[in-house]
From TrEMBL:
It comes from Actinocrispum wychmicini. The lineage of its organism: Bacteria, Bacillati, Actinomycetota, Actinomycetes, Pseudonocardiales. GO terms for biological process: DNA damage response. Residues 23-340 form the Damage-control phosphatase ARMT1-like metal-binding domain. Belongs to the damage-control phosphatase family. Sugar phosphate phosphatase III subfamily. Its cofactor is Mn(2+). Keywords: Hydrolase, Manganese, Metal-binding. GO terms for molecular function: metal ion binding; phosphatase activity. It catalyses: beta-D-fructose 1-phosphate + H2O = D-fructose + phosphate; beta-D-fructose 6-phosphate = dihydroxyacetone + D-glyceraldehyde 3-phosphate. This is Uncharacterized protein DUF89.
Length: 364
């Protein structure tokens, strides 16, 4: 096998990773300081983390999981760390700074709650009153990933995002589901709020149409990357859905009671590593049925956060995955595979980070 492309680093000015550290993270810390009655010590820890991440050395964590996930980065300059590792570590340190592991207060909860209590939601979800097709449910879940709360820190006020698929394996996924019905479907979730509501609509469609006999939702074990969904977020969204048209919330509630819908978490979902390093128990759970992987960060973790040629083969990059897998992702970062050369030549400069293009990539 040929050598893998290099991983993305954070130290090159004006690249996407550099911007995340120099623009997105400072904006996030400002919002957190504004949203919470944090103590002087918590405030100092947050601003100290920001300063350390821009100029300092990575402080070791005593957490046994992180002792294992360190991969030699503790004690080295942040500037030299891989983007994926450093970003994940930043969010872990942010939780320490606000005492999440002793208070249990999700620092991102105010933003997630604002999404679910947005009065516009009821109107937006009127489409649920009609019968929906698999295509509609997949499209809703895909475009639900358009504006995660972290991404909006950089793109607020830009034009509405256009539907623009650069890779479209939807038909192959739908055929797989029909040929293997009723199968188990694992969904590795991404963001809470609107995206999760749409993911739950897809879940309901898979269960009620008979395409899936069971759906397993994988969530983060703790708050992460601003809006990533935890168990609490799934419960909140299920309750919110019960107030929206179409009966989807009640059906999902019943599916959970009947054991056809389960919510699972695993420490590795917050690891700073790619899925190729996932432990055996997680891999075993994803070996059965089809796995739907949501969002940009999960895509980076699936293929490795590497400078792939955009035309290189997706299937090859995920050949380690324990079962059939498909990604529903809005492209928000540089990592891209499986784009046909003709399609690539049509795409505008900066398309990989504009959040205006989408991909449904499958290895079935
Ligand atoms: O995974 P998501 O919610 O689709 O997107 C996460 C994201 O906004 O954050 C990461 C950088 O901070 C990128 O992978 C991406 O831009």
């Amino acid at each position: 096998m040929s050598a893998l492309p290099p991983v993305y680093l954070i130290d090159e000015p004006d690249t996407f990773p550099w911007q995340v550290f120099h623009h997105r993270h400072p904006a996030l810390i400002r919002r957190l300081l504004d949203a919470h009655p944090y103590s002087p010590a918590q405030r100092a820890a947050l601003t100290g983390l920001l300063a350390e991440s821009l100029e300092g050395v990575i402080a070791p964590l005593a957490d046994p999981l992180w002792q294992d996930w360190d991969r030699g980065h503790f004690g080295t300059p942040w500037a030299k760390a891989p983007f994926l590792w450093a970003e994940s570590y930043f969010y872990r340190r942010l939780l320490d700074a606000v005492d999440y592991f002793t208070t249990g207060v999700d620092p991102f909860a105010p933003f997630k709650t604002a999404e679910l209590t947005d009065p516009a939601l009821a109107d937006e979800y009127q489409w649920l009153a009609k019968d929906i097709s698999l295509d509609t449910a997949v499209t809703a879940s895909l475009y639900g990933n358009q504006a995660d709360l972290g991404f909006r820190l950089l793109t607020a006020g830009t034009d509405p995002i256009h539907q623009h698929l650069v890779v479209d394996d939807t038909q192959a996924v739908e055929t797989w589901l029909a040929d293997n019905a009723p199968s188990r479907v694992n969904v590795v979730l991404d963001n809470a709020g609107r995206e999760l509501l749409a993911d739950l609509v897809l879940t309901d469609h898979l269960l009620t149409s008979g395409l899936a006999r069971a759906v397993v939702l994988h969530v983060k074990p703790h708050p992460y990357f601003v809006s990533d969904a935890t168990c609490t977020d799934v419960h909140d969204c299920m309750r919110r859905l019960r107030g929206l048209p179409g009966g989807c919330g009640d059906r999902l509630h019943e599916a959970a009671a009947a054991g056809r819908l389960t919510i699972r978490t695993h420490p590795f979902h917050c690891a700073p590593l790619s899925f190729v390093d996932m432990p055996g128990d997680l891999a075993a759970g994803l070996a059965e049925g089809l796995t739907v992987v949501k969002g940009d960060l999960n895509y980076r973790r699936l293929v490795g956060d590497r400078a792939w040629q955009p035309t290189s083969e997706f299937r090859q990059a995920v050949s380690y995955f324990p079962g059939p897998v498909t990604v529903l992702r809005i492209v928000k970062s540089e990592v891209v595979l499986g784009v046909r050369p003709e399609r690539l030549s049509e795409l505008p400069a900066g398309w990989r980070v504009s959040g205006k293009h989408a991909m449904v990539s499958a290895a079935l």
